[in-house]
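Forum: Protein Structure Q&A
Topic: Joint prediction for protein chains with partners

I've read a bunch of threads here and the consensus seems to be that you should model interacting components together rather than docking separate models afterwards. I'd like to see that in practice. Below is the full input, 352 residues plus whatever partners are listed. Could one of the regulars post the assembled result?
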Amino acid sequence: MNKLDILDLDAHLQTQTPQQILSFALKEFDNIALSFSGAEDVVLVDMATRIRPDVGVFCLDTGRLHSETYRFIDQVRQHYEVKIDILFPDSEAVRKLTSEKGLFSFYKDNHQECCAIRKIGPLQKKLLTLDAWVTGQRRDQSPGTRGNIPIIQNDKTFARSGETLTKFNPLANWTLQQVWNYIRAYEVPYNPLHDRGFISIGCEPCTRPVGPGQHEREGRWWWEEATKKECGLHAENIKEP
Amino acid sequence: MKIIFVKKILADGSACAKCADVIEKLEKSGQMARIDETLIADERDPESPGMRMAKLHQVDRAPFFVVENAGREPQIYTVYLKFVKEVLEQKTDQNEELKEILRNNSDLDFL
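Posted by a regular:
Agreed with the consensus. Here's the joint model:
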């Protein structure tokens, strides 16, 4: 797929349902896998296995997830009879971080160093083996950093040298409410932490329940001040006329 | 091979700190000479060469590098250390590359 294909496709896929988007992605790519975090993105596993029962799924096991999340990941594996590739961080990198800075350095510094080692490293390694991947990212998760995510994009960050990697975000246009409507309607299993006020679920030390009216982002890395992203090019200026 | 470096001027007219940091690193390592052309992406001017290049290649961040080779699709690098490793063939610190990826793609920490 070249650049123009991606642009045209994105315009087309913007009008499609998540199921239609997944159908397209799974038909177009054999070497494709879903990223599953052990949270409400389970809807993608539900949708995808209805289309391709043996679809590839992977989880980033940071080593710091809630025990409920580990149990839920295994529940999903059994419920959908799907193989889940559990990815681990580089043990030497974790050893170096924790022996030099302790087990909770993210509270003092910020979460980026820890997330880079525990999430981005294994993710990068996995994506080097794929031609396409699917995430549960939604625009309403964080208007600051996810407000412009497309349905389909060329993933320039993780592509193999000289090759392309295609990223699909089938839930980009869905709201949290739509995700939960689907979970209820199709009786999709879900992480029990959601019943205890957790909306967004990540690592145990970096996730907390939120109260009524709070945005899900407030349940993650709450001790850090939200900062304006500087690297983006102002969207209005690169939009098609 | 032709290497194009695109740096940014912010909407308020100030220079982009990340771009300045990348330039400093390129100069310190003596690799600035490998850059054939530098374009400015001026957020105040959508028709500035860098903004047009960003639109052409569907890039939504700066700085970035375009590597052109005859007869091949241009390669875009939005991660400086990936560019250094793959194009300039310099040894890089893996953890620094991972941190740069996360800094430039703050949506990834939600995965």
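The longest helix of chain A spans residues 112-127.
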